[in-house]
Amino acid sequence: MASDSTSKKNDWSASQYLKFNNERTRAVYDLVSQIVPHVTVQNPRIYDLGCGPGNSTQVLLDAFPDSVITGMDSSPDMLQKARSTEALAQDNVDFELGDLSNYTPDARADLLFSNAVFHWLRHDSRIPTILRLFENLHEGGVLAFQVPDNYHEPSHRLMRKTALTADAPWSSSFSGTSIGELTDTARPDLDPIETPNEFYDALSPLASSVNIWRTSYQHVLKDARAIVEWVRGTGLQPFLHRIEDEGAKGRFLEEYESRLKGEYRELKDGRVLLQYPRLFIVAVRKGA
Description:
Helix content is about 35%, strand content about 20%. By secondary structure, the chain is α/β, with parallel strands linked by helices. Helix 3 (about 20-35) runs parallel beside helix 4 and helix 9 crosses helix 11.
């Protein structure tokens, strides 16, 4: 079992994540807009799976002010931030620590919502977990989620490439794992997202409707270093957690940023565009 100090070291950082709160929350608004027509009960029971610092919970509360919402996350730091948010300190909102892989919401749930969480699961468990949650919904219950679909984007491809650099100060930190090899479940890089066809085929036998779309956001950021700061709050974390030496970690970040500069060319005003594809799914449970 990991020590408390190790757990805290490898925990998420709510403050790092929220550096790009507006950009990250855009997808939440887009997803919620497609949910509202399906949730028609007066006091819907909602679960925000992987609620993070509560930014998605706030959007859900604004859209469904008479709902009862439980935000679940695996990060104590994220939950602490969510619980300390004044607008969320209401009787109809609570937060709890949980693990998405085995978490089971109340069968009375009207909406299971998830913003950028399922991509953290490995391929073998991702769709089975989604189906387990969907099967537990009553007729008319809604499962709505979005996942980053950026495995092949330069921001994520260059994480893998930088980590695999030979004879670098950080190389030994990745010697025991096979980056890019999907059979190695202990590697720091995440699995690619399944195709819309795969999600549809899995959900449609249990659904009265399945709505799938993909959006590529074009986020205007200050420079390549801003891209580094963005992914330090998410996908880069598993890489950085493996590098214990702070000097080597700094060199890794410098090299990663240098490679990003070669892919993300400056605009006329010196800024860069971070293309960020996301896959969205809204499925409504049909009766048995």
